Amino acid sequence: PQKRKKNAAHLSRIRQLPCISCGGYPPNEAAHIRLIGTGMGRRPDDDMALPLCADCHRTGKHAEHNSGGSTAFYKRLGIDPSLVAGQLYKAKDISTMVAIIMKAKNGSIL
Predict the structure, then answer these.
(1) What is the pLDDT confidence band of residue 36, given thresholds at 50, 70 and 90?
(2) pLDDT band (50, 70, 90) for residue 40
(3) Using alpha carbons only, how large is the chain's radius of gyration in Å?
(4) Cβ-count burial of 21 within 10 angstroms (0-12 exposed, 13-18 middle, 19+ buried)?
(5) Which of 11, 21, 57, 64 has the least CB density, counted as fewest CB within 10 Å?
(6) How far apart are CA 36 and CA 70, in angstroms?
(7) What is the pLDDT of residue 18?
(8) How many Cβ atoms are within 10 Å of 3's Cβ, its own excluded?
(9) What are phi and psi of 10, to 5 degrees?
(10) Residues of 54-73 as b/e, b for ≥16 C-beta within 10 angstroms?
(11) Which distant-in-sequence residues (6+ apart) come within 8 Å of 68 by Cβ?
């Protein structure tokens, strides 16, 4: 199997962003996006992560982990998680990354 690409600095920046689901203030969690074909036993590469608060990621009734997985969760939000994650990875600075999150939440990035 192909080795997973790790990037601790990127995940640290992701945790400093508002929750892409509810807008909750950081620190948040770096939620790896598990789309169809990723494989349930393998965590996706670190460039495929979005900021979610604990409630939206793991613990809430409608959390990503409790709502049928990443595909269903982001479809309900109206967000293309791969597109947003790719833009966040390219951005590198927090202010640009916050702007990307806000555009995604407002439907400007589908």
Answers:
(1) low
(2) low
(3) 13
(4) buried
(5) 11
(6) 9
(7) 97
(8) 6
(9) -65, -45
(10) ebbbeebeebbbeeebbeeb
(11) none
Predicted TM-score of the model (pTM): 0.89
Residue 34, by phi and psi: left (phi above 0), alpha (psi -120 to 50) or beta? beta
DSSP classification of residue 108: S
pLDDT, position 29: 97
d(CA 110, CA 94): 21
Look up residue 70 and give its amino acid: S
Q: Amino acid identity of 49?
A: A
What is the average pLDDT across 102-107? Answer: 88
- State what percent of residues in the chain have pLDDT above 70: 91
31 vs 48: CA distance, rounded Å:
8
